[in-house]
Amino acid sequence: MPQQVDVRSYCSQENPHPNLAQNARLGWGTRSDIFMNDVRSITMTDEKRAVLQTPGSAKPSTKIRIIEDHEATGDTAAAYDLWRAGSGRKQVPGIIKCFGARPDFLRQVVEFSNTVHFSEGYLMRRHKEMIASYVSYLNRCPY
Amino acid sequence: MAAIFAGKLDDAGLTAAERALLDYAEKVTNAAPRTTAEDVQRLRDAGWSEDQIAEAVYVTAMFAFFNRVADAFGVPSQDYLSTGKLTP
């Protein structure tokens, strides 16, 4: 007889939920349904429990979920491709993927960076890099 | 640049003008409402133009934005710096 388990205890940051494909296969709906607490409790079967407890099963490495390169589809994939084309790099960095939820905004963010930071303006690139490095240091410090 | 990213401005081999610029960026980052006309005059005296000062504020504020997004999501802040060559 399956046992009722509060799903929230399985979806904490410490013990995150498995990936979307697994959710779909197990009939759980979407990951966000679970995260948003739309599903207050689910019926746990041995199979579901095994998935949740499998070591290394798609454990999100970020606090807010980001869309990884391999799972990006539609406009998000297109925006990632645009970034790759512009940068000449294969891997989209984490900070860019933070904007994957709004690919239209992602494009603007990239354009904004290119205009303000990754360009020679009145300041030399070198001086912009200095400011960026120092401000990033300051923002890491609690004040 | 590594010394700057570690906050060690004294070890970064900065010119006086560069140091003034970073001191100003620090005040904008930590206490923008408390910046004064005198702070800006210090930059002019160090040789920075009005347009350069304006741009320094844009870059400082832009990084406040990226640092906060990175920290809230939980990706390394330095990710952004490593993206470097976005322009051809």
Report what the structure shows.
The complex is a heterodimer of chains A (143) and B (88). Chain A has 2 domains: 3-53, no CATH class; 69-140, no CATH class. Chain A is built from 7 helices and 2 strands, in the order βααβααααα. Chain A has helices at residues 20-25, 31-35, 46-53, 74-87, 94-97, 103-116, 125-140; strands at residues 3-6, 41-44. Chain A is globular and about 40 Å long. Mean pLDDT of chain A is 71; it is low at 1-42 and 51-57. The model of chain B has no long low-confidence stretch (mean pLDDT 89). Chain B has one domain (15-83). Chain B contains 5 helices and no strands. The two termini of chain B are 22 Å apart.
In brief, what are we looking at here?
Chain A contains 7 helices and 2 strands. Chain A is mainly alpha-helical.
Radius of gyration of chain A: 20 Å
The biggest sheet of chain B amounts to: none
State the distance separating the first and last CA atoms of chain A.
53 Å
Global morphology of chain B: globular
Q: Fraction of residues of chain A in helices?
A: 40-55%
Q: What fraction strand of chain B?
A: under 5%
Q: Give the integer mean of the pLDDT values of chain A.
A: 71
Helix and strand succession of chain B? HHHHH
- Please report which band the strand proportion of chain A falls in: under 5%, 5-15%, 15-25%, 25-35%, 35-45% or over 45%: 5-15%
Q: How many individual domains of chain A?
A: 2
* Uncertain residue ranges of chain A: 1-42, 51-57
Sequence of strands across the biggest β-sheet of chain A: 1-2
Note the main sheet of chain A.
2 strands, antiparallel
Q: In the residues of chain B, how many domains can be counted? A: 1
Extended strand count of chain A: 2
